[in-house]
Amino acid sequence: MAFGDKPSKVVRRRAKRPISGALGLLIVGFWLLMALAGPWLAPHGANALVSFEVFGPISLEYPLGTDFLGRDILSRLLHGAPYTIGVALAATILACLFGVVLGLVAAASGGWLDAAISRTQDALIAIPNKIFALIMVASFGSSVPLLLVMAAFAYMPGSYRIARAVAVNVMTMDFVQVARARGEAMPYIMFIEVLPNMLRPVLTDFGLRFVYVVLLLSAMSFLGLGVQPPDADWGSLVRENIQGLGEGASAVLAPAIAIATLTVGVNLIIDSFGARAKREMEN
């Protein structure tokens, strides 16, 4: 390129591409891999008593130290990844799936059906999520299936509101009106014409819901109402070792940092979506 020439649009776009999105993908990809392969990569069993020293220091044998019973923190962290990430991911998928479908149905139908669905979701969203979770656990006990259903039900109304708001706007566009004039069935209009044109806000909302669900489940486990012993997720690892913060800080900090990095990684990906949309509007 000759001196004084302007860089091409492709070069400028690459120069503006945020590194934060790639970093977020790297962090989230790492933890997803740990959720899948963590139990097989763990050097010890989740409940194996490997040391007589409780809250042992970081060493080559125990890279993250030991907990209040002398168990390896690294192994406990890896065994807890499927519970923290897997349950949260499944609950988020269910919440967004039902929320988006209900939002599409309400936006496409209108009238009394739209009003009935919207008022029902408004009533549900008025209940604080933690209060709802405490009521569910107090009523039915704590189990992994209950935590999954509870988290999905708690965050479905928020997903519905986002999906309906976007779907109502898309429904007014010309290509949807053309599809209606052709006599296309309502399921075709909802899932072929409307849904592909609302994927970006839906995916952004999915990322936010996932972060909320991770924090909710971790808070429930910290209160002793989440995943029950002998199983453990990252929130329960913080709770059971909190009394040793002064002498074995790594037993508390390791799962706390894992939760923090996972949520930060997801937020970096979401921010990169917003930056990309802004660049597309500018170009």
From TrEMBL:
SUPFAM superfamilies: MetI-like (SSF161098). PROSITE patterns: ABC_TM1. InterPro entries: BP-dependent_transpt_permease, MetI-like, MetI-like_sf. It comes from the Bacteria. One of its GO terms (cellular component) is plasma membrane. Keywords: Cell membrane, Membrane, Transmembrane, Transmembrane helix, Transport. This is ABC transporter permease. It comes from Billgrantia tianxiuensis.
